[in-house]
Task: structure prediction
Amino acid sequence: MSRLRSIPSVESLLQHPDLVRLAERAPRPVIVGAVREALAGVRAALRKGGTAPPVGADELAARARSLAEASLRPSLRPVLNATGIILHTNLGRAPLPEAAVEAVLAVARGYTNLELDLATGSRGSRGAHLEPLLREILGAPAAIAVNNNAAAMLLALNTLAAGREAVVSRGELVEIGGSFRIPEILERAGATLREVGTTNKTHLRDYERAIGPRTGVVLRVHPSNFAIVGFAERVSREDLAALARKKRVPLLEDVGSGALVDLRPYGLPEEPLLREALAEGVPLACASGDKLLGGPQAGILAGTRRLVDACRSNPMARALRLDKLSIAALEATLRLYRDPESLGSAVPTLRMVAEPAASVRARARRVLVALGADRAGRARAEVVPCTAEVGGGAMPLARIPSYAVALTAPRGTIGELARALRMGAEPVLGRIESGRLLLDLRTVDRREVPRLVAALHHALDGERGSG
Result:
């Protein structure tokens, strides 16, 4: 108990010079909370009978300062994506185009005409900011946007098939990121699942036999993050759309990635296009805004006026609607699609997909040179060829030639080096392969190179200092 009594009080510790200086940029309640947490940790260790030497005021102040500074940092922070996964779900998927960033800043600083018709002065609709653009770009009679593609599907299924059956191929009962499963979303939407076909083969006759008086919708789902190859067969979009029209049952297609342009000229596989789905007879289709479209998190529903209006009138639509920041970002991103010639440079996702491998290699070499001979030598750093991925549940078989800076750990393990980069002031995420840390430069913009180099300097110098 005497050791407990020797621990400084909160007030005395607050007078420590380190914490006095910290008070110039941190609120007092934050510092007090950090001091109490540091003291509580010491008391808990002593009560457990620890034999560690007493902790002095300097060390306690350092602990408290570290805790306070950590609490001052935002939880949601920018990171450098050197994983080579272009649409990394854990890292927020698509980086926004500069035009979208500027649009968000413009509406974030003050009031907007979110639901006001400036011409009449009367109440307007937030959907009016996006629908004309969506109709123009997609060639659709009507369209709405909600807060993600899962929400778009949930809204459409609840509107069309609540209390009824949804006919789906067994090969399309997928699970994507975050344990999002088609059967479960059907259940939440109030629809009953009616499976047809087999995992690898579904024929048109399977759908025809399943459609009946209880059918609310036929659902066609983009396989997203997996592919069935070999002995497989899927009913074509045109045939399924024709059957749905014949049976007078709506067809809903989840196009998935939100691609609005053909990426085959860049050497990538064919990806379903939302515009093509609508042109080929699908009366209602949904897709993501933050995948290959390259915009903010959003879900787009487009199709016939009757079906879109039905979804719009569903009370659930209000709970799933976009906020003003997402609307501004999506509108600005969609406007870029009016000029196909500039898309490759204006939309970061498309720029990363399309960049020549030689350009990526040149950027990797700049990083290697900037490391300096000493650091590069200690980490046995070199530029190596590798493959990047589209990610985000799109193009699961696509591999994009790329280049990375490969590093080994001068001291400790490669996992410790990776952690040092993650935990730095400028977090860096790479990937570990064959005992080396690879920093893939396809997902690091040229403007981010100085920040990447600074983070590497800090992590590698820290490795040396830790010895």
User: Anything to note?
Assistant: The chain has a mean pLDDT of 91.
